[in-house]
Amino acid sequence: MSSANGTRSEAAETTETTEVPVAPGESVQAVLATVEPNTVVRLAEGTYAGNLAVTTPGVSIVGAGPGRTVLVPGAVAPSTIPPLHDAPADVVSGIAVHATSDVTIEGLTVRGFSGAGVYVHSCSGVRLRDVESDANRVWGMYLRESGDVAVRRCRAGASQYAGVAFAFCSEADAVVSDSDFSGSAFGVFVDNSSGVRVLRNRCHGNAAGILLLHQTYEGELPGGVRDCLVADNEVSGNTLAAGGDEPDALGAAGPPISGVGIAAIGVERVTVVGNRVHDNRPSGPSVMPGALVLASSADWGGSDAVDNCFEWNVVTGNEPFDALVGTDPSGQRFRNNVVGSSQPEGLFEGHVEGHVEGQGPQGTV
Hints:
The protein is mainly beta and 365 residues long. It has one domain: Single-stranded right-handed beta-helix, Pectin lyase-like (Pectate Lyase C-like, 3 Solenoid), CATH 2.160.20.10. The protein has helices at residues 10-14, 28-32, and strands at 18-22, 39-43, 46-49, 52-54, 60-62, 69-72, 95-98, 104-111, 116-121, 127-134, 139-144, 150-152, 155-157, 162-167, 174-177, 180-182, 186-191, 196-199, 202-204, 208-213, 229-231, 234-236, 241-242, 257-258, 260-265, 271-273, 276-278, 292-295, 309-311, 314-316, 323-326, 333-335, 338-339, 342-343. Keywords: Repeat. Residues 1-25 are annotated as: Disordered. It holds the Pfam family Beta_helix. This is Right handed beta helix domain-containing protein.
C-alpha cells in the first residue's frame, strides 16, 4: 500500500491556523495552489465553478453548508491523482485529495462532475464533514489506499457505483457515520478494506445498501475485508437494479444485484449488530436473493467468510428472503436477531431472548 497511514498528529491539532476567505467568482484553486499548511480556505455562500486539487497538508476547505456553498464543473485543475477506478480516463472529480495528510472538507455540495464528487488517494487524516455529493457520475466519495479517514454527517446520491467507497485501504482505521446514501448501486461499499466502521447511517433507494466485498481484480493490489463493524444502520427500500452489459448502467462493472440490504462477502471478523433491515425488494435479477447476506468469495478469487458475528439485528419484510447464508454457519455467530424468512431455514430461530426491537446491547457502538 502506497498511502501514508497513521493517526492525526498533535501538531495538526495544535498549530495556529491562517484563514483565507474566498467569494463566488474568485478562483478557489488559485488559493489552494499557494496556501501554506494549517490554512482554512473559507468559501462564502454561492456557486463555484471548477474542480479542486489538494496536495498541501493541514488544509481545510470550509463552506457555508451543503446547498449553500456549491462546487460545479468549470475550469479543470491539473492533478497528480491516479486515474479513477471504473471510470474513463478523461473524467474529472470535483475535489481530488492526493498524497497528503490532515485535510478537512466541510460544509459544501459537490455536484455534477463526470468522475467522483470527492476522490481521496494515498492520504491520512482526511475528514469529510457535512459534505453532499450530488449526481456525480461515477462515485460519490471514493477513498482509496488511505488511512485514518472519517466521513461524518454526509450525503451522497445518484452515482453509478457507490455513495461512499473505501477501496484497498488495508489498514483503514476509518469511520462513516450519521450519513445518508441513496440512488446508487451501493450506498456504502467496503472494497478490499479493513478496519472500517459503518455506524448510524441511512442507506435507502440503492441496489444494495451496504456491501463489504473481498475479491481480486486483475492488475490491482491484494485485498481482504477484516475487522469491520456495521452497527445501528437503517437499511431500507433498496430496490434498484445494478449490473449488466451496458457501460453506462448502474453498477455496470459488477454482476446483477438488486434488493440487497447488507451483504458481507468473503469477510473475516466482521461484526454486524443492531441494524434495521426492511422493505428491500429486487426489481431485477440478483446474485444475492436476500436482504442480509453472508457468503464466500473463494470461487472468484476472494476468501471464505469466517469468524463473523451477527447480533441484535431486525431483518423483516424483505423479499425474497430476509437472510441468506451461503457459507458454513458453524464458523459464525448468530445471536439475538429478529429475522423473518431465511435460507437455510431455521438458522436464526431460537436466538431472540431478551431482544427489544430497535435496541441493541449498550456500549456496542
